[in-house]
Amino acid sequence: MKEQLELILKQGLEEISSATVKDELENARIKFLGKKGALTQILRSMGSLSAEERPVLGQLANEVREKLTSSIDEAAAHIEAKAAELKMASETIDVTLPGEKMELGKKHPLTIVLDEIYDIFSSMGFSIVNGPEVELDYYNFEALNIPKNHPARDTQDTFYINDNIVLRTQTSPVQVRTMEQQKPPIRIIAPGRVYRSDAVDATHSPVFHQIEGLVVDKGITMGDLKGTLEVFAKQLYGNDTVVRFRPHHFPFTEPSAEMDVMCFKCGGKGCRLCKGEGWIEILGCGMVHPGVLRNCGIDPEVYSGFAFGVGLERIVMRRFNIDDMRQLFENDLRFLKQF
Ligand code: DAH
Questions:
Q1: Fewest CB atoms within 10 Å of the CB: 78, 85, 149, 229?
Q2: Nearest CA to ligand 1 atom 7
């Protein structure tokens, strides 16, 4: 029996040390130490031994089991370490290899200029707010002093969802929404898409972009309006830009004006770009109408404000010499890659 035990130890150690994967190791364990394994069978037959032999061989059998067990543990640790090493080696990244090139897109020309406008107004303390494109008739028209049969609705015909809901024709409704939610001081710009039922041509599109501006506080005057918008024009077009304010009419401002910049191509003499005028219209503006303030729960006896609305496409087209507005919306890469 002693020889049998020694043979088991020898064979066991051999099989364990030759195991290269976990499964092989497990097979060896079952074969020698498992319930039906070689060692267990020997232990079972110990009953037939004499009283002197039993403790001696019993101790030897225990030693064999311990040796096999510890060598299995060792081999398992070794196999695991080997596997981890292999995994690490196979997952190594060669950081010196050239990377895969990603096709980088570009900013759309509308976005380029809009980002500039954000920068200009942010630096003057304005924050950016957004309003819905699908808007209540009340916010788009009524609250801005444009009741149902007002002639100003003619030039701003739009798409009606129903009698009370429209696609907004201007970003001005964001003025009302802001004043309803926020008490003065208010200093915001509100960019976004607006809609009108205009036929598509080189200078018209049923969808285009505006940037609305609104300042409300105690003691705001036309001087603040002119100063702010002149700074805006100079930052956008350069420090030598000359602006003028022309009286105009908007239902929600009083007084109202349009701001022109002196044609930067002909310097005011008149050319094709400015259609012989010498000036190019940039935006509409004015002092917020007391009735509009009142509609929003702001007391016009205490507060005053100015507002303005800029058409983004026109500024972009002039900036990049684009002569057809449709190109801004067709998303032709040959066009967009130029900016
Ligand atoms: N909402 C006007 C339009 O679409 C533009 C405008 C004019 C906005 C004067 C203003 C403003 O805030 O004060 O024609």
A1: 149
A2: 284
